Amino acid sequence: MNDRPQSRLPLTDAQSGVWYGQRLDPDNTAYNVGQYVEIDGPVDQDLLETALRRAVGETEVLGLRFGEEDGTPYQEPAAPSDWPLPRTDLSTEPDPLAAAVALMRADLARPVDPAADRLFGFALFTLGPRRVLWYQRAHHIALDAYAVTLLTRRTAEFYTALVKGEEPPARPGERLADLLAEEAEYRDSARCAADRDYWQGQLADCAEPVPVGGVGHPAAADLLRTRASLTEPETAALLALARDLRATWADVAVAAFAGYLHRTTGSRDVLLAMPVMARLGSTALAVPVMKVNVLPLRVAVAPGTGFGELVGRVVRAARDLRRHQRRRAEEIRRELDPSGRRHAVFGPMVNIKAFDYHFDFGGSLGTPRNLAAGPVEDLTLSVYLDGGARLRFELDANPRAYTAEQLAARGQEFRTLLGALAGGARPELPIGRIPLLGADALAAALGPAAGSVLPAPGSVVERVGRRVGSVPGAVAVRAGDVAVTYGELGDRSGRLASVLVGLGAGPGCWVGVLLPRSVDLVVGLLGVLRSGAGYLPLDPGFPVERLALMLGDAAPVCVVAVGETAGLVPEGVPVLRLDDPEVAATLAGAEPFTAAEMDPQAPAYVIHTSGSTGRPKGVVVPHGALASFLAVMEGRLGLVPGDAWVAVTTVSFDIAGLELFGPLQAGATVVLADRETVRDPQALTALVARTRPAVVQATPSLWEELLAEPVASPVWSGVHALVGGEALSGGLAERMARLCGRVSNVYGPTEVTVWATVADLPADHRGTPTIGHPLPGVRALVLDPALQPVPVGIAGELHLSGGQLAHGYLNRPGLTAGRFVASPFDGPGARMYRTGDVVRRRADGSLEFLGRVDEQVKLRGFRIELGEVESALSAVPGVGR
Question: Is the peptide bond before 710 cis (omega within 30 degrees of 0)?
Fold first, then answer.
């Protein structure tokens, strides 16, 4: 037997979602919706109050109370009670509107319990003799935006009738029970099953949306807001564009927002959240109650998608969405994410306010201004036509995900895109080519130009040669118990160069260097450079198969080796054994040689990449790039004769070039740690304690071992620590900053000559560090898949250009070999390197590393192919291949 009161009604499907959402977080004020109506003209506030009380009395849901029994929520008539209508005169305030809004926001910030509190509140604020604000606040369980519009319109009708001494037209006879009966009938219908099947098929393979801010956050109770509008001519042009595309202005606005999201997230599968009234039939249209539904609008977008084509996709998707709009979002979310693991199921919301937003209060115009429209997870765009003459929009943001400055920038970017569409952008223009940034924002997004190559930096040979002449007796290299002075290094490397030239070495040739970590290694590398050839560094610890691949790729004139490494060289490749008695005699009798002139474009060395993504590629670095980099680092590091640098990196890794030539160009000492010492943190720390180096460079993995607490040695307090080659975690960064004398987080691909950016960490550093700013001579460009600069604060792929750029890949000629592409931003013939790393530029110009392009989580939108890059380049006027 059912003993529940017969006056109790179930909740609408929309109300149920709000009820449970509020119960899960009782103090959350996100379900407080509010606006004020600005009435411009004379207002009789007594008549307005009378009109409002009559309108509220007609609004059935505002006379109900909510409760729950046995886990099932219900609504039933509440005992009649009076409610206040405060009137406040703010006309003497310095800023009456700001004062009124502050009071409204304070009211909206108070939690409302649907089971105990009144679900609405109103107030009147007088700002001047002909300016009154009518504040409206309601809990979302009672009213949605359309219901608030019905209430406002009905109040205006009552007021106008009272002013004229007339009775307003009767309201429709439909009641809440009629609407609930319609919903129950729908749930048992074949139409409901068809709608369920449609959404399951539509979203079965849908991935989690990528937030514009890069990281998802729970919905916040408060929000940030920015507003903008088009001019009347721009609006007219946009309306004409919509007509040409056989679409509505709303379709154009939604397509523009989908395109904007693609541009700022890289996502090719944009999933918008679109509110729909879900009011089919006269009953739902007439009953003021919470009924709105929020459904996913899925649109495919690629950089080459024409805007007209995108509008067509939106038109078709929106048409299908409206056909199936009665399926509740809550049910779709459960079916799409049954585990509840996804942070976001739908993407940013776009709210098209298509119904009338002006009201007649007895001849005075009432214009609503929204204050809060419900929870915001990421971004919510609200768009409306103001009087049919100007397109206006509001962009709301979750304050946990955006600052006010970031939101203002996002709003300006969307405004720029709309303005470009209104300014004559052709429908066939790819969405990836439509301007997104104004002049100032574009300059900030591009970052500073690389500038000219440093004046006459001199080749490595010249830079080290000057130290041979100035400090000949100083120790240049120390390896174990063996050391050579600068004078000895100059003599021995010159004699080796002479012998290599006799074997055919010279500019354009390669010489392999396959030596243990000894003094001979540095002599060998410098000797190759002095011959004019480029060196191919070979680590004796590499597998013989990899060594054979590298040697086959470079086809060197010969390989410089010693007895213990010569056996690693494949048969048929000439070997110059330094410990062979005949070779030693030849070297002893040779005259030191240095190539007459080092062409900055001539290759200095070739470094083979790891091969983790396929066959290793040999990156060819020219003398000019290496010399420019060393000159920059000389100024940053400040080494002087007498300083030492403990070198720990395999010679086949590009950063070894800095460890060896950085100290030598300054007259300092290279202390070569052998392989066993590098692998033993205690032994390496002991070496540092003995030699007191000014600089040590290592990967985060090695630093993690060296600075493992609580045994980290105090010897590191005098060391300038360079850390790079891998992402630096926040925990390690904080430990290094605390324990080392100075810490520089360095970043750079082999293709841009060792390091391209640097961030110096303060001693009190906290959190994950950025990769800093570009070094002089390097330009950092953060671009989207269409090679357009992304806004500051938005993720994109890092491209590097400037004087440190490598030639390209060995035996892979051509501008677009691998990731080397033409640069549209650095003048005719300029190139840039696609790093494959996703970063975003911060407001201070520093770069924040986010991950690799080929990582799927959150970054999948940036997976682009070379063919797309070539297509993007072909669209840039004046850029050749």
Answer: yes
Instruction: Specify whether the CB–CB gap between 603 and 459 falls below 8 A.
Output: no
CA dist 581 → 523, 585, 588 (Å): 18, 6, 10
């091969």: which residue's tokens? Answer: 611
Name the pairing type of β-strands 269-276 and 32-40. Answer: unpaired
Give CA–CA dist 659/467, Å, rounded: 16
Residues forming a β-bridge with 225: 396
Angle at 304 between CA 299 and CA 306, to 5 degrees: 70
What is the DSSP pairing of strand 32-40 with strand 131-139? antiparallel
The CA distance from 590 to 848, in Å, is 52
Tell me how far apart the alpha carbons of residues 334 and 320 are, in angstroms, rounded to a whole number: 21
Q: 832 - beta bridge partners?
A: 821
In the structure encoding, which two tokens stand for residue 731, read together? 């925990």
| Amino acid symbol at 332 | I
* Contact yes or no for 605/657 (Cβ under 8 A): yes
Q: Which DSSP string do the residues of 517-529 spell out, in sequence order?
A: SSHHHHHHHHHHH
Q: Are 755 and 658 in contact (CB under 8 A)?
A: yes
77 CB-near residues (< 8 Å, 6+ apart): 7, 63, 64, 65
Kindly list the distances between the CA atom of residue 475 and the CA atoms of 371, 478, 643, 766, in Å, as whole numbers in the listed order. 73, 7, 10, 39
Alpha-carbon dihedral angle through residues 730, 758, 774, 874, given to the nearest 10 degrees: -60
Give residue-wise pLDDT tens across range 6-15.
589 999 989 9
Burial class (CB in 10 A: 0-12, 13-18, 19+), 539: buried
DSSP state of 95: S
Mean pLDDT calculated for residue range 859-876? 42
Three-class DSSP category at 387: coil
The percent of residues above 90 in pLDDT, for the chain, comes to 71
d(CA 693, CA 696): 7
Q: How far apart are alpha carbons 42 and 143 in whole angstroms?
A: 28
Average pLDDT, rounded, for the chain = 89
CB atoms within 10 A of CB 177: 14
Burial class (CB in 10 A: 0-12, 13-18, 19+), 82: exposed
Q: How confident is the model at residue 174 (pLDDT cuts 50, 70, 90)?
A: confident
How many CA atoms, within 13 angstroms, populate the side-chain half-sphere of residue 422? 21
Type of residue found at 336: L
Beta strand pairing status for 575-577 and 603-608? Answer: unpaired
Encoded tokens for 156? 């205006």
Residue 524, C-beta contacts closer than 8 angstroms, at least 6 positions apart? 496, 513, 515, 535, 560, 578
Cβ atoms of 669 and 645 closer than 8 Å? yes
Do residues 124 and 265 lie in contact, with contact meaning Cβ atoms separated by under 8 Å? no
Task: Write down the pTM of the prediction.
Answer: 0.83
Strand ordering across the sheet containing 695-698: 482-485, 475-479, 669-672, 644-647, 695-698, 720-723, 742-747, 757-761, 773-774
- DSSP class of residue 591 equals P
* pLDDT reading at 60 higher than 90: yes
Query: What is the spatial distance between Cα 74 and Cα 442, in angstroms, rounded to a whole number?
Result: 55
Which helix (H) or strand (E) segment is 351 a member of? strand 349-352
Residue 112 has pLDDT above 80, yes or no: yes
Q: How far apart, in whole angstroms, are the C-alpha atoms of residue 350 and residue 275?
A: 7
3-state secondary structure (DSSP) of residue 777: coil
Helix, coil or strand: residue 864: coil
Dist CA 119 CA 34 (whole Å): 12
Cα dist from 95 to 91, 98, 127, 132, whole Å = 8, 5, 9, 14
Tokens coding 295 = 């459904």
Q: What span, in angstroms and rounded, lies between the C-alpha atoms of 157 and 163?
A: 10
| 263: Cβ contacts below 8 Å, ≥ 6 apart | 417, 431, 432, 436, 784, 786, 788, 790
Q: How many CB atoms lie within 10 A of CB 601?
A: 11
Task: Say what the pLDDT of residue 815 is.
Answer: 40
Residue 184, SS3 per DSSP: helix
